[in-house]
Amino acid sequence: MSPRAAPTPLPRRFYARPTLVVARALLGRVLVHDGPGGRTGGRIVEVEAYRGPDDPASHAYRGETARNRVMFGPPGHAYVYFTYGMHHCVNVVTGPAGSANAVLIRALEPLEGVALMRRRRGVVELERLARGPGCVTRALGLDRRHDGLDLTRGPLLVAAGAPRRGGHRVARGPRIGIRVAADRPWRFWLAGHPCVSATRRVRSGRTFRTGRRRATTAGAVGDSTRA
């Protein structure tokens, strides 16, 4: 039996828009990776936007480097980086070329290749398989080798079609897992969705509601870092 055809990817013009617009528009869409072990995919339920040289929390804040070069390229490419010596994180590059804007994928609702995701993660509970940026990349089998992939061609892509949010409203609030510019309301998630991530530990500071519990805008510690 021949393998099923890959879904049609979103066009580049989808990613060429302002970063906050793209971040919100990604919610409810399906991120798919066709890897050597098979196809895995999930519905995007949580993201964070990072706005290049104007954003102190962005990897691009201090300019272009070998590590972040993909961020400065054309929109519609994957920026995958390694952090804390243990996690990979995947972002989609947005806005015009050279703007160095990106959207971090923070959580997915697993839809396809769930058995493979479970093997990769060593976790059974569906809602935990891709909750948090590091879990997203492990579940999908992504690492630095996938940095720079063209999302309009595959094997990594966001499927075209209308977003499906299952009746969950789109919530917006401060970013988490960062220590600078954390108060900017550039995190978007599907409110009440069980796969939305949350901080593991909080420190003193003004609190806000995440998708599942309370977190802080001052020094919140999540399971990954910024884009």
Summary tags:
3-methyladenine DNA Glycosylase, Chain A, alpha+beta, 227 residues, disordered C terminus
Map the helices and strands.
Elements: H1 12-15, H2 19-26, E1 30-35, E2 38-51, E3 78-83, E4 87-94, E5 101-112, H3 114-121, H4 133-140, E6 156-158, E7 170-173, E8 187-190, E9 207-209, E10 214-216
Antiparallel strand pairs: 1-2, 1-6, 2-5, 2-8, 3-4, 4-5, 7-8, 9-10
Structural summary, described in words:
- The chain is an alpha+beta fold and 227 residues long.
- The protein has 4 helices and 10 strands; from the N terminus they run H-H-E-E-E-E-E-H-H-E-E-E-E-E.
- The strands form 2 sheets. Strands 1, 2, 3, 4, 5, 6, 7 and 8 form an 8-stranded antiparallel sheet that branches. Strands 9-10 form a two-stranded antiparallel sheet.
- Strand 1 (30-35) and strand 2 form a beta hairpin.
- The longest helix is centred in the first third of the chain and has 8 residues, at 19-26.
- It is globular and about 40 Å long.
- The model is unreliable at 199-226 (pLDDT under 50).
